[in-house]
Amino acid sequence: MTRPLSASSVPTPNVGSHGVNKTELFVVVFFFLLVSVLGFLAARWRRARDANHLEEWGLGGRSFGGWVTWFLLGGDLYTAYTFVAVPAALTAGAFGFFAVPYTIIVWPLVFLFLPRLWSVSRKHGYVTPADFARGRYGSKSLGLGVAIVGVVATMPYIALQLVGIQACLDVIGIGGKGSSTFAKDLPLFIAFAVLAAFTYTSGLRAPAVIAFVKDFLIYLVIIVAVIYIPTRVVGGWHGIFHLASTTKGKTKPGFLSLNEANGKANAFPYATLALGSAMALFMYPHAQIGVLSTKNRNTVRKNLAGLSMYSLVLGFIALLGYMALAVGFNGTPTGHLGGNAQRAVPALFDAVFPSWFAGVAFAAVAIGALVPAAIMSIAAANLFTRNIFVDFIKPDATPKQQAQVSKTVSLLVKFGALIFVLGLDATSAINFQLLGGVLILQTFPAIVIGLFNRWFHRWALVAGLWSGVIYGIVVAWQQKKFAADGKTVLQQHFGNQIAKVPGTHLYSYIAITALVLNLLVAVVLTLVFRALKVADGVDETQAADYTADEGDADLPDLIEAEPALAEI
Amino acid sequence: MSESEQSTRGPVVTPARLIAAVCVIVPFIAVLGVPIFDKDKPEVAGFPFFFWWQLLWVAVTAALMGLAYYVVRREELARRPVAVGGTVVAAAPKADGHDGAASSETDGTAGTDGTAGAAGTEGDTAEEGDAE
């Protein structure tokens, strides 16, 4: 009936060719309403006596135990990046699989430095990475640098979440048409408004509660997808890899491994993308929030083995990109996706699942984008408030004023993200996250090296940070995006995050090149400043602070959460 | 200064820390050494080598992280009671608060006296290479 290794049992309708799929829309709206109600109710969950305090709104009162942490950190990893951007990157070849080594090595990195960050933050009441940089080096300017970079780097990452939601809505059949920007992006604005509203009222508690629903939906969808879809493709996994890597019977290079593509040239970019992304992840203010809101020093370490499960699932989600290729979807103009590879996974779900379950899957993806977007905007807002507003604008702000400023800024950050979505090419959304990584990785020396060693001079770190950031932005700006023919320029700027390392033949993730420059500047200037005896700041932390733990006698008090619930 | 600090914390390199260090380093080599796995054969369960190797390392890394936590934690617990039994327990944290902000030169004194130092983990090796 069918030829061997064909995917003929799966239809591949063009995205946008049918009207609104009402069943899908109904299911998505249902789950949206459900999580919205949960989001607003979350404000009452484990409520502290002083809900308007920043430590409360922004860190959930530092009361989260193992389970909540597992879900909250999951919120950092399972985002639209995982569900939409990475599979979309795989539709262009095995190179996109770098997300897997990235999420593998992130855990050993975490094992190394996060307990120390937790301890010193708990001891000194640090809420943001910039707090630590400022305290450790006695330098408000360094804190300011870390804070500005953190806020800006978060925006493209939030933008990626909005792109993910948009892709689902496109496939359902709303939006994506119409001529005006407003009609086209209306669903995006709606999703944006819901997100903004519940973050504003509930703070970190909202995404923490919704994360439970989100992870349940995601696991359900992924398990079903990974077991069911291969049965729909003749030849199972072998068939998927075979079909994804061939076109009209010919093997395409770079799909079964990197090697086939253009020799060994891809190995270094692949490794640097993985390494740079891994080092960058826990520099993001939102990822640190997940860690700082835990109850004790070892909560995260203890959960690392469990957290690794996220990476495994991420790997299989990534392969949804190949499944989409196998059934005939791809990012080319004839690939049934309207030329936008970001729609690959939603289109695949739409094609293989019955409408009601496709609706559940879209809800999982959309909520999976909302939760991290909420956490990210809260984290960026904390950062602004603590290290820009209080340090430089209004030093005597009351906790209540601080919480208010944070809430307002969390809105502004989301608007910034919206500008990224509308302004940059959204058909390769993984670029958004990688661009954020280029920026945020430059805070690595001040934070991670600072946790172990205070050799660097504060002004050298400030100079290094800005050198890295400026280099990264300039080089990223210069990267053009080419069409498949290698000549036609699709996008003039920010088209790619891999560039040649100056003075070599190697291509590397820009973030890593910029970090090397950053470190060089910091080392050289440290020697210079020491020789000139430029005043080094006062370090307010001490050796023992880095190993402090819950229950130590000298820790500052926390705002009390309701005791009965603090055990979850 | 840093020498005296380390001496009261027991040896910096212990078998537990060595094991933890290996657990932490090995995944980097396995998944960043792209030439190791950049080929499509042999295939397992339909997965090209490139893919199953990396997916396999997710599970291996999980196991290594579990092991690293286990050995480090066990050592921490073994050390802690010794320090808690010491007489400096109540005094040290106070000294902390007073000296702390005054001068970075005094850094590490509290750690020398023992309490929290006992909770030290593998990270302490590079502890506080402070200003001078």
UniProtKB/TrEMBL annotation, chain A:
Transmembrane segment boundaries: 25-43, 64-86, 92-114, 142-166, 186-204, 216-235, 267-284, 304-325, 356-384, 405-424, 430-452, 459-477, 506-529
Keyword S-adenosyl-L-methionine belongs to the record: no
Compartments, record wording: Membrane
Entries under Gene3D superfamilies matching the protein: Sodium/glucose cotransporter
Keyword Membrane (UniProt): yes
Membrane topology per record: Multi-pass membrane protein
Keywords associated with the record: Membrane, Transmembrane, Transmembrane helix, Transport
CDD domains attached to this UniProt entry: SLC5sbd
Main location: membrane
Membership in a protein family: Belongs to the sodium:solute symporter (SSF) (TC 2.A.21) family.
Protein name: Sodium:solute symporter family protein
Source organism of the structure: Catenulispora pinistramenti
Lineage: Bacteria, Bacillati, Actinomycetota, Actinomycetes, Catenulisporales
Automatic annotation (TrEMBL), chain B:
Low complexity composition-biased segments: 105-123
Region (Disordered): 94-132
Keyword Cell cycle among record annotations: no
Keyword Zinc (UniProt): no
Keywords: Membrane, Transmembrane, Transmembrane helix
Transmembrane segments: 12-37, 49-72
Name of this protein: DUF3311 domain-containing protein
Organism (species): Catenulispora pinistramenti
